[in-house]
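agent> Task received from the user: take the single chain below, predict its 3D structure, and emit structure tokens. No templates, no multimer pairing.
agent> Plan: (1) validate residues, (2) run structure prediction, (3) serialize to tokens, (4) report one or two observations.
agent> Step 1 OK, no nonstandard residues flagged.
tool_call: predict_structure(input=
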Amino acid sequence: MRRFFYIFLVLLIIFLGIIVSIGTTTYEEEARGFVPMPIIMFHAVVPDKYSPNPYIIRISDLIKDLDYIKNAGYETILPRDLVAYTELGVPLPKKPIMLTFDDGFYGVKSLVMPELKKRGQKAVVPVVGQFMKDELKNDARVTFSYLLIEETKELEDSGLIEIGHHSNNLHELRRRKGIKKLKSESQENYEKMFKKDTVALMEKLAEYEVFPVSYAYPFGAFDKNSNSLLKDMGFKVTFSCIEGVNKITRDKECLFGLKRYNRSGTGKSVEMLLGKK
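)
tool_result: status=success, residues=277
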């Protein structure tokens, strides 16, 4: 009988610990009315022998950023975690942060993933359909090329990466800026074009059982109806390039147009970007 009493006592303590943990998070959220969440936007990550620029960061600098995030108590989350929070009430960590690696550079697989694994961290990789071609080999591929579409399945299965949508063939500045509507374009033609492009990449990824719930606007450009069009296609989260800390609530509408800080390879470190928050 005494044995059952001790088992019951242990289970009770565990249960109360869970309740207190969830309750603390809920209390803090209710006190503010939201959960603050910064997003750091990376692009290409390269070996240290290459020069950085606003969209290229050296691996040694990324390592410093990841260490700072971990030591500062931030926990990396994914878009699906935000959906679970808003739709199912699944708690978020006390200090959530999201990392995105835009465009789907091959360095995400060769350089970033090993560092994420060491620290138990996760990241979102919004890919561009037109970029996923095997055009460069050897060391040059690590630096200047992109993931192949079949590699997206491997990344998702790792549990460290969630693949996002970054357009199929609209990551360009020639005729239009990203997905932005042309002045001479009718709304009907614009919507037809945007849906066609979006579905094209969705179908390619679906062949490898990859189903993105997030969409990152190329160059941060979007049309006033972009979010509603993406909602109709099943997307739950969209990313902008506007800078600032996001205020996450239980309202699923807050997940559209999320703000991100660009981590320039020649600019402020993540510690500097987050230090004033």
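agent> Step 4: summary for the user.
Residues 269 and 275 are 10 Å apart (CA to CA).
agent> Done.
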